[in-house]
Write a structure and sequence with these properties.
Oligomer: single chain
Helix content: 40-55%
Number of helices: 9
Number of domains: 2
Amino acid sequence: MIPVPLVARGSLLAYRVFDAGDTIMLDVAERIVPSAKRVELGGPLAEGLVIAVPAVEISLASCELVIPGIDRPLEARVSARIFHFGVVSVLYEIRLEPGTPLASLAPLCGAIYDSAALDARGAQHLEEIVRELATSIERPHGWHETESYTIVFVEELAGAGVDALVDSEAVAKLLLGETSDKPLSVATRQDVLRNGFSYLTDDLVLIDWNSALVVEPSGSRVVPHVLELATCQLLEFRYYDGLLDRELARVYELVGRAPRILRSPFGALTRQVLRSFMELTEFTERVDNAIKSVGDVYLARVYLAAINRFRVPHWRESVETKLGLVGRAYELLKGEVEVSRAQILELTIVILICAELVAAFERH
């Protein structure tokens, strides 16, 4: 008889991650919200994770979530993490009924993964947080996109060991939110389950692009925190990618105009590109420093698998390429204006010389 994995104790951790501004002064945020506290991680792997600037955690009021496709409201414990690099991560923690078969969670997870209702609830919580922390946010962005990630967090597994999950069809469907009775193709199942890691014999991490299964008997939230950091990094590169798309559109518009010779805007625009480059460099340094603190080899492998699964290197390369394109385009436009100015100056000199010659002939 094939053992059926059951969740004896666990939760769904549904994250909605938002960009709030360039940076958030966490010391100011702590003074504004009396209940705010720095995130402290425990468990056997916590010693290998030294966060340079620990996030600030804020407890919010619990709420009921009404998610289309789920026939009952879900009671969720709500909290938010404020990161110094300008990100607010809202967490909805939904306790799972003891004895729930792991395979039966696929419909619930499928409804939550990309739920527009949960996105909207997250945006409401973000608005409240930003309003309260306004004085701590440097240069708010007003960008309303979100990044979602859901972790099936199992603290106690019954009915089977973690070995039964590594190549499980049911787990692959759970991570995809797939409710079809038809089996997945071998290639799809292998692709979903290929990012699997274990530290001890009773723990497991399986990472997909939109979800993860974390079995952690110690109850430590270190691995979820690493996945949360990777999600934050993805969100921020998406923000800068969109920002540079808008900047490139401005370049195309300027190219279609006749250059202004006397009052060229390109000097100011070049300075703006330089400022954007500095902001992007500062952001990547802040996020990279947060991630470099993952000193444990196991956690580093989990993190690298996550950013590769999220295609963060692709987004980063796209941002850096577009930034280079914008900078070169503005330099070319600025150069065109400078050439036109030089030609006008040369023509003016020729006219002055001719005028001097004519005046000299008239005197004689």
